[in-house]
Amino acid sequence: MGPPGVMYVRTKVVSPAASDVDSGNSLRAAIAGITGGGPWRVKLEPGTYDLEATPLRLKPGISLEGSGPEVTFVRSHVGESNGGTLVGVAGSFVSALTVQNTGGGGNAFALYSEADSFAFHDLVATASSDTFDAVAIYLKGARGTFERVRASASSRGYANAFRCRDCNLRLHDSEAEAKGGTQGVGIYTAGGSVVLRDVNATAQGATENWGIYTDGDMTLADVEALGRGGTSATGFFVGEGNGTVRHSTLMATGATTSNEGLSSSTDYNTHGVFRTVSVHGSTIEGASVSVHRARYVNIRIAGSQLKGSVTQESDASASSGAYTCFNDYGPSFAPVTCP
């Protein structure tokens, strides 16, 4: 029922109850009470809705809308085997709230979905774990455009803010940050094709830190990718697939052993398959190496500032890929020559 004088037909308004857990139960009941299909809006008033150790699985056609991520919190301590705090399904939608997983038994996921038509925007997602992996947003097979998203993950193990497998999507005007643990990754993708525009991705405080790590095809436009601290740090890492970078900053700093702004590798099982990374009008900085080329990777860089040496694998040769550099320059604006 809505406010006096307002007649809602396909909207349910959920208000805070006596406790956060009671509020979570009210939210769960509102979703469960929607039957028969069709579009519904579930509107959350400002408050905290605690789902405890059981995820909330949305239904097709349901739009879950908060009152703003600064005042609306849906949280849980769900373990990985049960999915995330919120589980998106085909045709469902989430916006204007913060979804949290505070960690419990098993890996901690805040927002999880295996649906290709699940969507969200204006969302904050956080995940933390003392022992296990923490992933703020974990998508499989997602499609579409996602905007104004802030994801953060912290763990003593593996921390990943935004993770996507076999996705074909665009992420705009968003932030991703991973902190602490043995490995930290701001954004990770495997397979698919992903476009990042106006995105900041950071990993810091772990033993190994990657701002962005892709095993698929990825395009960066107006992106800042930063790896900081630990033993090794990388701004943008291309493991498999191809990469395109435009008007972006790729930076690695503060690591004790290796700092690489842009790096690549070739998996033994796919050696001999050529891939391409193209960079246009960007800044790439690494205290150890600005750009590193693996075998079977062609790297093309034009009109970019390279702060740090440009290297390639010792056994790389013309038959296993090459650098093509044009109008690139160093910190003092002197021309840079690639191997």
Description:
The protein has two domains: 9-109, no CATH class; 133-338. The chain is built from one helix and 25 strands. The protein has one helix at residues 20-32; strands at residues 11-14, 40-44, 47-50, 56-57, 62-65, 72-76, 86-88, 93-101, 108-113, 119-129, 134-140, 143-155, 158-165, 168-179, 183-204, 208-228, 232-238, 243-246, 249-253, 258-264, 275-280, 283-293, 297-302, 305-312, 323-326. The protein has a five-stranded parallel beta barrel with strand order 16-17-20-22-19. The chain starts with 10 loop residues before the first strand and ends in a 13-residue tail after the last strand.
Shape: elongated
Rounded Rg: 22 Å
- Helix % is under 10%
* Tally of DSSP β-strands: 25
Strand order of the largest sheet: 16-17-20-22-19
State the low-pLDDT regions, or none.
none
Largest sheet: 5 strands, parallel, barrel
State the end-to-end CA separation.
69 Å
User: What's the rounded overall pLDDT mean?
Assistant: 94
Strand content: over 45%
What is the SS-derived class? mainly beta
Q: Please, how many helices?
A: 1
Encode the helix/strand succession as letters: EHEEEEEEEEEEEEEEEEEEEEEEEE
- How many domain regions? 2
Structural key phrases:
339 residues, 2 domains, 1 helix, mainly beta
Brief synopsis:
InterPro entries: Pectin_lyas_fold (IPR012334), Pectin_lyase_fold/virulence (IPR011050). The protein is mainly beta.
SSE diagram, text form:
Elements: E1 11-14, H1 20-32, E2 40-44, E3 47-50, E4 56-57, E5 62-65, E6 72-76, E7 86-88, E8 93-101, E9 108-113, E10 119-129, E11 134-140, E12 143-155, E13 158-165, E14 168-179, E15 183-204, E16 208-228, E17 232-238, E18 243-246, E19 249-253, E20 258-264, E21 275-280, E22 283-293, E23 297-302, E24 305-312, E25 323-326
Parallel strand pairs: 1-2, 2-5, 3-6, 4-7, 5-8, 6-8, 7-9, 8-10, 9-11, 10-12, 11-13, 12-14, 13-15, 14-15, 15-16, 16-17, 16-18, 16-19, 17-20, 18-21, 19-22, 20-22, 21-23, 22-24, 23-25
